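Q: I'm building a small set of examples for a reading group on sequence design. Run inverse folding on the following structure and report the sequence directly after it, with nothing in between.
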């Protein structure tokens, strides 16, 4: 049974260069380029950006920042993925000493980008991996895909002993930027940003002492047979022909249902009887991301995505974790105390909600820019 274990040896997060930073001023410039928007859309976007919790240190794709969101190219989509995949993998191989030919299993998950040759083939070609590597490309699963990838590796480890696996999780934002005016489709522009991560996993018992975490449980729930759940998070075209990602009001309902069904399976596996009783009253989960994880701590990872799916897994921390990552330079500033929280969008553009503007016909973009 020990050979069936799944250990996380290392992971490498992606942090874009500063020229891709999507701060308030950059967001406003992008919004104002969309000539389909009116006062109602500006107000909706302001409310969404304020409520999203996104700060000044998120990153966007180069083609959108450069004003080419309406004419994305395949080359730009590949460049966006290459920067994430190869940047994190280079660092992962360098830090761990594991070389690309050592990898037995490769899984890449990305929600909306499925080129040919596949992204896994692109990685195999770049690093000249073995010809018998087991490679899998996952697409169309939304934000739940990373947990699907982990669960896939865990199951493959039951058949392949003493193996190394790499999971690369990311998304391409550039080719899928919505340029229309439907509120339910503009949400994705406000909520998602550029990022990614590469993870090195193994089931080698001899490397247990080097592991950061051990996968204890994983549970996948798919309620796609329900029509409302299936359509609550879906890629479509609007009436003007603009392609985008529709998020409906049924999303929260579907998420709650899938999450509840998932926990009914997961919770009995991880909590003793006394905690099960407590769980029915409270259910508070959190993860410390500020170098405070200690040996024996349990981490619940939750992912929800199109389909509709809820995939959760539980990791056990194998050693005290104190190493920083690419976000180390700003981690000490978060979370921001509520009393000190000043949203830059609300601070600069709350005047858009002034009811007196309802009776004025003018070019709001010129007012905002001035």
């Amino acid at each position: 049974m020990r050979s069936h274990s799944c250990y996380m040896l290392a992971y490498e997060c992606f942090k874009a260069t500063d020229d891709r930073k999507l701060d308030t001023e950059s967001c406003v410039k992008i919004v104002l380029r969309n000539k389909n928007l009116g006062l109602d859309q500006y107000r909706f976007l302001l409310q969404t950006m304020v409520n999203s919790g996104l700060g000044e240190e998120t990153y966007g794709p180069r083609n959108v920042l450069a004003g080419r969101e309406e004419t994305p190219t395949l080359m730009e989509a590949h460049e966006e993925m290459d920067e994430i995949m190869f940047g994190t993998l280079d660092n992962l191989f360098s830090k761990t000493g594991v070389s690309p030919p050592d990898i037995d299993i490769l899984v890449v998950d990305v929600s909306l980008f499925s080129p040919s040759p596949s992204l896994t083939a692109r990685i195999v070609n770049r690093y000249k991996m073995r010809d018998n590597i087991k490679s899998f490309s996952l697409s169309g699963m939304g934000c739940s895909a990373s947990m699907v990838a982990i669960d896939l590796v865990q199951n493959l480890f039951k058949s392949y002993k003493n193996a190394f696996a790499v999971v690369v999780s990311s998304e391409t934002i550039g080719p899928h930027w919505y340029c229309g005016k439907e509120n339910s489709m503009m949400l994705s522009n406000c909520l998602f940003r550029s990022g990614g991560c590469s993870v090195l996993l193994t089931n080698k018992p001899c490397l247990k002492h080097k592991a950061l975490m051990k996968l204890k449980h994983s549970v996948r729930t798919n309620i796609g047979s329900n029509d409302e759940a299936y359509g609550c998070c879906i890629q479509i075209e609007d009436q003007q022909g603009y392609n985008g990602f529709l998020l409906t009001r049924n999303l929260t309902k579907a998420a709650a249902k899938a999450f509840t069904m998932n926990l009914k399976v997961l919770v009995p596996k991880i909590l003793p009887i006394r905690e099960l009783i407590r769980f029915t009253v409270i259910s508070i989960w959190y993860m410390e991301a500020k170098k405070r994880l200690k040996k024996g701590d349990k981490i619940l990872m939750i992912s929800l995505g199109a389909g509709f799916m809820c995939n959760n897994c539980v990791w056990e921390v194998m050693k005290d974790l104190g190493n920083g990552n690419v976000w180390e330079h700003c981690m000490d500033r978060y979370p921001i105390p509520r009393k000190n929280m000043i949203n830059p969008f609300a601070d600069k553009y709350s005047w858009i909600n002034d009811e007196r503007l309802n009776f004025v016909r003018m070019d709001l973009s010129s007012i905002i820019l001035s």
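Confidence is low (pLDDT under 50) at residues 276-282, 284-288.
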